[in-house]
């Protein structure tokens, strides 16, 4: 009986140690993710500002897609090395550069500055609110994974269709879809990090950055449409 109790105590202690290690690991990923995310957001803002100041032209759809998916592939491939961090900054810097001409276009419109600032404030509020909710409740949002993958692909194709066929209504619908999907992605990825589903802070940073970027640009398009006189 005594030996059985000792065995139970050993198993309980081992289980407790594993839980502590898992919590420490999760907290480390959360800490590193938000640190790297803050740095990449700042770097992206700087490249966007430089692009705006130099009035650089938008690279176009093809170069944008090739640059984005190419750098995303390299980031994923080298996610476990120092090169991964370098490619994260290359990716987010490139996305900041593509954002600069878009911001200049909005700022040149009536109420453009208000539209940009409102979209920025709404993006920050949504990200902080959803991240805070996922961090404090520690709810499992892994069930959203399949839905988000299909939804994002559908919205992406709808956005491309709107560009090629010049359908403004479809473009707005795609933007509305992206607002909802990126909000869901923030919940999903934050939950994934704190529950140990995502242990690589480089990839976690990329996912959250992409969600914030698309959320901001989609809100800006929707707000711009609502404030226009057309």
Notable features of this structure?
7 helices; globular; mainly alpha
Helix content: over 70%
Count of discrete alpha- or pi-helical segments spanning 4 or more residues:
7
Give the class from helix and strand content and strand pairing: mainly alpha
Rg over CA atoms, rounded to whole Å, is 21 Å
Question: Could you say how many structural domains there are in total?
Answer: 1
Count the strands? 0
What would you say this structure looks like, in words?
The protein is mainly α and 230 residues long. It has one domain. Helix content is 85%, strand content 0%. It is built from seven helices and no strands. The protein has helices spanning 2-53, 61-77, 82-107, 112-137, 145-165, 168-194, 201-227. The chain starts with a helix and ends with a helix. Mean pLDDT is 88; it is low at 6-25.
Task: Please render the helix and strand layout as text.
Elements: H1 2-53, H2 61-77, H3 82-107, H4 112-137, H5 145-165, H6 168-194, H7 201-227
Helix pairs in contact: 1-3, 1-7, 2-3, 3-4, 3-7, 4-6, 4-7, 5-6, 6-7
Précis, in short:
This protein is mostly helical and 230 residues long. It is built from seven helices and no strands. The chain has one domain (28-227).
């Amino acid at each position: 009986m005594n030996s059985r109790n000792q065995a139970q105590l050993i198993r309980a202690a081992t289980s407790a140690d594993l839980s502590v290690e898992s919590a420490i690991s999760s907290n480390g990923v959360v800490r590193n993710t938000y640190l790297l995310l803050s740095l990449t957001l700042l770097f992206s803002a700087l490249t966007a500002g430089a692009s705006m100041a130099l009035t650089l032209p938008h690279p176009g759809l093809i170069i944008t897609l090739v640059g984005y998916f190419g750098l995303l592939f390299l980031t994923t491939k080298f996610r476990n090395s120092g090169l991964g961090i370098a490619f994260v900054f290359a990716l987010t810097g490139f996305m900041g550069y593509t954002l600069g001409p878009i911001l200049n276009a909005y700022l040149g419109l009536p109420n453009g500055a208000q539209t940009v600032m409102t979209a920025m404030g709404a993006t920050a509020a949504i990200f902080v609110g959803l991240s805070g909710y996922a961090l404090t409740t520690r709810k499992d949002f892994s069930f959203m994974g399949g839905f988000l993958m299909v939804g994002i692909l559908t919205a992406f194709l709808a956005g491309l269709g709107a560009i090629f066929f010049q359908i403004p209504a479809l473009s707005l619908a795609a933007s509305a879809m992206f607002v909802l999907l990126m909000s869901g992605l923030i919940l999903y990825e934050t939950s994934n990090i704190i529950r140990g589903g995502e242990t690589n802070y480089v990839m976690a940073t990329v996912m959250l950055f992409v969600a914030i970027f698309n959320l901001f640009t989609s809100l800006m398009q929707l707000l711009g449409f609502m404030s226009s006189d057309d």
